[in-house]
Amino acid sequence: MGKSSLIIVLGLSVIVAFFILKLNANSKESLSTTIDMYKQTHARQIANSGVEIYLDKLYFNPSMINNTYQNNELMNGSYDVILTGSYQNVKVTSTATFMDITHTSVVHASLVDIVAPDMLGVLYLPTSAIVWSNTGNATLNINGHNHDWDGFLDSSFASTYGIYVNNQTDKTQIVSKLAKNKNAFIYGLGDDIEPYSIGVGGIVYENEKWKLLSELLASAAGSNVFDSKSKIPIILGTKEEPIVAVINEPDPTKSVSLNNLEGSGILVVNGSISIAGNFKWHGLILAYKDSKMAIQLTGQATIIGAILATGNTIEFLGQGTVDLKYSKQTIQYVFNQATPLGYKITSWWE
Asked: Residue 279 to residues 30, 46, 53, 84, 115: CA-CA distances in angstroms?
């Protein structure tokens, strides 16, 4: 009986020891797998970061194309990058090493330019919920006849409407609002037929198109983003160097002051702006997102180009004067001169 018990105990001890050894082995194997996954993930992150870093570098320095850049240190690892193709269409090969793991990412990217929209009216309102408000005594001179950069009539391009909307209901609403203001003058196509030059489109409401344009422009603004707390320079872009700038003030109780400002380029507005003194803009002003664009006037505002209002409301309030003059060549010029958005990824392999 004693020998049998001893045999059983020894047998159980061997079995328990076997399971303990097996558990230890599994634990070591699991730990090894976890470490390997960590190293692989880290190497992948380094390689992908290398792609983004060198696309940004290439964007600002086109001469970097068709070169190899080795031994870049990042996150306790390193990576090599090869740029091939052209500045407009580039292939980026990024090979990263972290500890004993290597990971390669291959990306094709194309340079994206922002294309000027077709303006069917110098004040274009492709929005589904227009509330035109002109409760003050502001003088509105909205002229859809083509002008040059300096604001003189130029027949080299065809005229457009003073105001353009998507449907007859919106037009009726705007006309009823304008009729209450004897200082509103809307010129352009149809001047000799109707009291106001207001075009009505038979096109489908292109909300996604304008949303995409707004997002592209906002992304291209770089550091030129301002709110009600910002100190905005009085010169915001010039004819030689037009820029993309964003006014971003989502708080409806606040407005961004554009006092005695002169600028050239594309001004994207998300929120309310107040204009005091003299304001002059060459290019496009775009009301961003679904915001209310309220222009509080106490001075003279001259816009040579166009306004594209994709928000829900546009208001001209106060005692000032707005001179809005259509200029196709000005719009095209500032878009051609504006900085491209950057690179769009067309394929990614790793």
From this structure: 68, 48, 39, 46, 26
